[in-house]
Amino acid sequence: MIARHRFLSRARCTMAGVGLALVTTGCEALTGLDDFSISSKTSSDARPPETPAPDGDDPCPPWTFDCDGTCIDLQNDPDHCGGCQQPCAATAVCSDATCVCAQGHTACDGECIDLDSDARHCGACHHDCAGQACARGQCAPEILATGLPSVFALAVSDGTLFWTEPHAGRVVSIPAHGGERTDVASAARPHALCADTDALYWSEEDTGRIVRFDRLSSGTTTLASNQPAAYDLVLGGGFAYWTTHDTGKVLRAPLGGGTPQPVASGQQGPFRLAVNATHVYWVNLGAGAVLRAPLTGGTAIPIATGLSAPRALVLDTHHVYWASDDGVIARDALAGGAPMRLTTTAGLPQHLALAEGHLYWTDAAGTVQRIATDGGVPLVLASGQARPAGMALDATHVYWSNLDDGTLQRVPR
Q1: What string of DSSP letters covers 180-243?
Q2: Sign of the torsion formed by the C-alpha atoms of 239, 243, 247 and 249
Q3: pLDDT tens across 173-192, in order?
Q4: Which residues are 316's β-sheet partners?
Q5: What is the number of H-type helices and E-type strands within the chain?
Q6: Of the candidates 248, 327, 313, which has an alpha carbon nearest to the alpha carbon of residue 279?
Q7: Beta-ladder partners of 35
Q8: How many Cβ atoms are within 10 Å of 400's Cβ, its own excluded?
Q9: Is residue 57 very low, low, confident or very high in pLDDT (cuts 50, 70, 90)?
């Protein structure tokens, strides 16, 4: 008996080297395995413990184990992965006694998913298409409106989507899920647009007015006059803020009416802007800079300089984000510091928006994309679009207009 145990020990030591080589070869052959284990076993369980050989001949070859009378390779058998009667999921494989997702599949909550076609996890885990089909990792967009003239700005509020049509001289709305279009108001080449629960606000290129439109009474109030090239308009703390690109100013006015107040002047092509509880931020197209100043006005402090015509800007509680003409999308701390490049997109970025840890944009390459606010791989939400321009977000969807084909579309965000 002693001699037999020595023989088994030598045989298994010899096979251990062979077994390791076989496992390595097997892992190399299973290219594209998801590196996220969907097994609950720890690393100490990866190789099954050896059991003493029974008296008489060992019924199973080395590196296999007796599972109810069948010799099983617990290292690689998907029905007995790491232990008898421990099956992997249907689309998983067993490698080194651990269940992993096969090539072309990704682990989402312990399930192996084909992100190219699964409408519950389209392009990324938990990106649900909300009833639309998923193909090539993108949800099929819903077309809300067609035959639109040039659309510049979008805003969504209380289940209604609004937009400006500068050449048609009107502000229009549609239910956010689609339906009949409504002409909300006539306007002299309306440009920038924003909304709250009570009113719409827009700028007019022809008159230079900043207008407040009461959604209940349909009455209008002029918040400011003689504001040329007011290409962006945002709300914050009871004020409307805007830039005048041609005169180099950042201004604000009370939402209830009153005298406009300067925030900054002498700027080189101020364009997009955003506000938080203490400061207003804006980009200077001409100077290639991101700046900020106190809400009530004061010295403009540079946040980032030497940029290639930054033209989009948004904020969250910790960072300011911008996109520039060279396709760079970046962020910096609210007080400035060392900018962080998040990604570089192929086409000229047009608009930025933020929601729940993701940054969204449209670009001239015909895509609508998102990326995590701390970086990573962008997710293409829609491609092949005809010059997507204006963009807006609500709790479930991202909306955009296509300048070249006159459509208004949305996909789950």
Answers
A1: --EEEEE-SSEEEEEE-SSEEEEEETTT--EEEEETTT--EEEEES--TT---EEEETTEEEEE
A2: positive
A3: 999 999 999 999 999 999 99
A4: none
A5: 1, 36
A6: 313
A7: none
A8: 27
A9: low
132-156 per-residue burial string, b: 16 or more CB within 10 A, e: under 16: bebeebbbebbebbeebeebbbbbb
Q: Where are the beta strands (DSSP E) in 121-176?
A: 134-135, 138-139, 142-145, 154-157, 160-165, 170-175
Backbone dihedral angles phi then psi of residue 392, each to the nearest 5 degrees: -150, 155
Mean pLDDT value across residues 386-392: 93
Give the CA-trace dihedral at 242, 243, 244, 246, to 10 degrees.
-160
Burial category of 238 from C-beta neighbours within 10 Å (exposed 0-12, middle 13-18, buried 19 and up): exposed
Give the number of C-alpha atoms closer than 13 A to the C-alpha of residue 401, restricted to the C-beta side. Answer: 25
The first and second tokens of residue 210, run together, are 């900043």
Helix (H, G, I), strand (E, B) or coil at 307: coil
Tokens of 223: 């918040």
Query: How far is the C-alpha of 403 from the C-alpha of 406, rounded, in Å?
Result: 5
Q: What angle do CA 279, 283, 289 make, to 5 degrees?
A: 105
What pTM does this model have?
A: 0.81
CA gap 211, 193 in Å, rounded = 10
**Secondary structure (DSSP) of 360-378:** EEEETTS-EEEEETT----
Question: 348 and 387 in contact (C-beta within 8 Å)?
Answer: no
What are the tokens at 234?
Answer: 């945002």
Q: What percent of the chain has pLDDT over 70?
A: 86
Buried b (16+ CB within 10 A) or exposed e, 313-348: bbbbeebbbbbbeebbbbbbebebeebeebbebebb
